[in-house]
Write a structure and sequence with these properties.
The complex is a heterodimer of chains A (372) and B (176). Chain A has 372 residues and is α+β, with helices and mostly antiparallel strands. Chain A contains 8 helices and 19 strands. Chain A has a 15-stranded antiparallel sheet that branches. A two-stranded antiparallel sheet of chain A has the order 1-11. With 176 residues, chain B is mainly α. Chain B is built from 8 helices and no strands. The longest helix of chain B is centred in the N-terminal third of the chain and has 26 residues. Chain B starts with a helix and ends with a helix. Classes of the chains: A alpha+beta (372), B mainly alpha (176). Chains A and B meet through helix 1, helix 2 and strand 8 of A and helix 1, helix 2, helix 3, helix 4 and helix 5 of B.
């Protein structure tokens, strides 16, 4: 008897499957941190005209308590020589740069604990599907946010660092460099590559050495919201991408933005990785808003299909579309964080800016009525 | 995930859901736990689908880790008997139990990690390196676990006069 016969014999009384393909896909969508969507209720009749009226409203708007307004960085601003610490909430404190064979994009995701930027090579782009493949990202943590984990076996510009070659993940070679970039604050660079030697540890160190501060610039969002359920606080913002690392993975796909709210807000200290990358689950007690083109949605309206007249909720997700069906707004909850009715209320309070023109987008401090 | 990717993911689930559950079941011995492990692993695979070179290895890794974690718990204490493999101690020597039940009992004498190695190497057909990657263990450890697992299973089956006709692939490969 061969091993194959043994397994087939032991498993010959298998019961019917309890999960359908649709069940798995629905769970996967929830795990994906739910991109996309909006809705085409009467509320989004207002969305359709936001392009014309949104900006004046935003100008009148005051920053939420705890969220100081941050001026946009002017091109003539003097070079920043030290990291602003602590920077105001939801601001970016560095910009894109080149380092050896790698290029760091400007950060697009910012939380109360860290900023994340995509990193790619001169050839393969981050999240590229061509071989060789490279998926890499830089995370700059706020002081005290990151808890170094591992032997300090290297230095970067004379400061302690940790270099690790980690077990492969799905055929991708994983390297991690963590280093202290200022007193009490660490940054990390993860690379998943189809080639073991590209990028090299030296390439990662070059990125670390070249990290420099820039004048704080507020993250902008393609919408404003009027209602946030009691006790929820914004914790992660994505500008031009979904909030979180999934947003970085999908950078360049044309998404507009997103925010994660949590109750209670997770502690912004003692982290070893971004909050919502702990095995697929999201932040406990959280919900997330996604603003994406309908064409990017995992629940896209099909060609010729009209947006539904009422918000569409199911499997912990509520969806709506702009009146013309081109923009999706989606809210997804983690577990039972909030009810469908509350998600509907949040959606009804959202007003889109002109998504195609980020000059009309408000700073996060003005878009969100509560502070972190 | 765009529509093409989702179609690809659906096809992957359609073709793999049953076989993955079977592999998880042989590792953990409980159909309920096995299916939960597979469903959770596939859900976690979904957002990573487009950026994984080998989604099959990724999901097998997740499934086996979950299944092996379950085996560290008291054996199916909270599960219904109908879902579970019989404990070895319950093996019936009266001759009522058929060959299939004896094979199950023999397989259960193999520790979970060794069992996982045997299933991945000799049933799923993974290479030594792929098995090591899925289990997060050095190749040398996988080799030794395969040898010990085969020896243990062979001994257990022999008690019921069942011959395990499976050569140690690590040994034969190394000497090919």
């Amino acid at each position: 008897m061969r091993m194959h016969d043994i397994v087939e014999s032991v498993a010959s009384d298998e019961p019917p499957l309890r999960h359908s393909i649709d069940d798995v896909v629905a769970a996967g969508r929830r795990a994906e941190r739910r991109r996309r969507v909006g809705w085409a209720t009467a509320a989004l009749t207002a969305v359709a005209v936001t392009a014309a009226v949104g900006l004046p409203y935003l100008v009148r708007h005051q920053p939420a308590p705890g969220m100081a307004a941050v001026p946009a960085a002017a091109s003539s601003a003097p070079a920043q020589t030290t990291f602003a610490a602590p920077a105001p909430p939801f601001t970016f404190t560095f910009t894109g740069y080149d380092a050896g064979p790698l290029h760091v994009d400007s950060p697009l995701v910012v939380s109360t604990a860290y900023q994340i930027a995509a990193v790619h090579g001169s050839g393969p782009r981050t999240n590229d599907t061509r071989a060789p493949r490279l998926f890499a990202y830089l995370i700059v943590y706020r002081p005290g946010a990151y808890k170094p984990n591992g032997t300090r076996n290297a230095t970067v510009a004379g400061r302690p660092a940790i270099e690790q070659a980690l077990p492969n993940n799905g055929g991708m070679h994983h390297r991690l460099l963590a280093w202290q970039y200022i007193d009490g604050a660490w940054a990390t660079l993860d690379s998943y590559s189809s080639e073991a030697a590209n990028p090299s540890a030296k390439d990662l160190r070059a990125v670390a050495v070249a990290l420099k501060p820039a004048p704080p610039t507020a993250a902008r969002l393609p919408f404003t919201m009027r209602y946030v359920p009691a006790g929820f606080r914004p914790v992660v913002v994505g500008s031009h991408v979904m909030a979180g690392l999934d947003g970085i993975a999908a950078a360049g796909e044309g998404d507009f933005g997103g925010v994660v709210f949590a109750r209670p807000a997770p502690s912004p200290t003692g982290l070893t990785m971004p909050w919502n990358e702990t095995g697929g689950a999201g932040i406990p007690g959280s919900f997330e808003i996604f603003i994406v083109p309908n064409s990017n949605s995992n629940q896209a309206l099909k060609p010729g299909q009209q947006p539904p007249a009422q918000p569409r909720c199911g499997h912990g997700i509520c969806n709506a579309w702009s009146a013309d069906g081109t923009v999706d707004i989606q809210i997804a909850r983690e577990g039972n964080a909030i009810s469908d009715a509350e998600m509907t209320k949040v959606l009804n309070g959202i007003t889109l800016a002109t998504v195609s023109n980020d000059a009309t987008w408000p700073d996060a401090s003005m878009a969100i009525p509560v502070g972190p | 995930m765009n529509q093409d990717d989702e179609d690809g993911f659906r096809e992957f689930v359609a073709t793999r859901l049953g076989s993955l559950r079977k592999l998880a079941y042989v590792t953990c011995g409980d159909w309920h736990i096995a299916e939960d492990a597979v469903a959770n692993a596939l859900a976690k695979l979904y957002p990573r689908w487009s950026r994984l070179e080998r989604p099959d290895l990724y999901v097998q890794t997740m499934v086996f880790r979950a299944a092996i974690d379950e085996t560290r718990r008291p054996w199916r204490r909270e599960r219904s008997a109908s879902d579970a493999l019989p404990d070895v101690e319950q093996a019936d020597t009266s001759g009522v139990i058929d060959e299939r039940m004896r094979i199950r009992a023999a397989l259960l004498t193999v520790p979970p990690k060794q069992r996982a190695v045997l299933v991945l190497r000799y049933y799923a057909g993974l290479t030594l390196e792929e098995t090591a990657e899925v289990l997060g263990a050095p190749s040398g450890t996988v080799k030794s676990q395969a040898a010990r697992g085969l020896a243990r299973l062979r001994t257990a089956l022999a008690r019921d006069n069942i011959n395990l006709d499976e050569a140690n692939r690590e040994w034969t490969d190394a000497n090919a």
